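REQUEST FORM: STRUCTURE PREDICTION
Request ID: SP-0412
Submitted by: Lab K.M.
Chain count: 1
Length (residues): 447
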Amino acid sequence: MMRPPLKFLPLLLGLALAAPSLEKAEALLKAGDYEKAALAYEEVLAQDYGLFEAHLGLGVALFRAGRLEEARFAFDQMTRVFPDRYEGHFNLGQVYLRLGKPAEAVEAFQKAVSLRPTEEAYLGLAAALTQAGRAKEAAEALKKGFTGERSPAYRLALAQALYAAGSRAEAVPVLYGLLNQNPKRAEAWELLARILAEEGLKERALRELDRGLAQVEGKPRARLLLRKALLSPNPEPLLKEAYALDPALWEAAFLLGQARLRAGDARGALPHLLAAYRASPEPEVALALAAAYLKLGDHKNAYRYAGEAGPPGTFLQAQAAYALGKKEEALKLLEGNETPEAQALRGSILLELGRAEEAVALLRPLYEAGRDPRVGSNLAAGLVALKRYGEAELVLREVLARLPREASAWYNLGLALKALGRDGEAERALRQAAALGSKEAQGLLGR
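STATUS: Completed
RESULT:
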């Protein structure tokens, strides 16, 4: 549910003034000089702490100056001096929302609603409950405050709250009622289509989107095109149209980039992903950028964006760190990751760091579980390093049956056979490795 914009009640400039300095304070506030206005309101309150307009003006000035904690104190004081006035509780709730203190905001808005059940107060209460993770209570609050006179914004907030609370079917009549009143409300068409699709009514969802597109004009159409793309078997033209209509719609650019990346075109994906990231640096976009840069061999950028993706990017960051020669860091990044890919990379790094025993202990169960020939090749290399040549040969024979052109496997087989005293077989294995490009084998053979 969208948070309602912070809306302070208008200052009552037309009331009789307690002193000339109040008029000065209100003029400064109206002119946008919030720091001086706050000082002027403080002077007024020093003369008369019971002046309602000065308390309200001070809170507004402090908020607009970005001094949120001081604004909180000012409105809190206002509720203590005027406990039965709606304005102090309402504005205190708004400041608590901006401070990220939803529990306190809920209490303030509940008091405001009890004093005057305005649309603004109910929207503020629902926003606070949503921020506190209490979606069902947010929906119930908006239902309680619903009347036939409520605005389209209130109806949309109610539908969004019902959806967030898992009451999708209950949200549908609210959305249709809204759209009958205001058919140009793109957010309502988009949410309606989402609900219908989630209920298994994909074709009906597409029809409703087409109805919405016939009504909505300008940039808001982009959201409907994006939703239609998500339901379409051929999304790219719709995504391109949505992005052209609204370049700030990062999701469209992101999905275009993802499609290119899945198709193997990492270079073609980059412009779209970078545009999405500039518009909104979401973790999922950073993750896709890391994957694209890794495929392109730009390990420095892959490392950077994988780090910005948070925990989902840890494995990609480990891969990039390894490619940049940061092997110990890569090992640390892989800690706790039990996926086969992560374990395989960890085993490779342990081998390169000369920790063959640890590598074999890690790679053996991994190889036995999936018989991945590349894991087997690394396992065999560890066994050769530990002088367990017979075991290495058995694994390498299996690997080469699946990857007959794996140069490193032929090279390690040559080493194992030579150590076992089977020089003729060893030379043949080494020659095969050399022919496949193994520099180590070529060196042993004197090439």
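NOTES: The radius of gyration is 33 Å.
Reviewed by: T.R.
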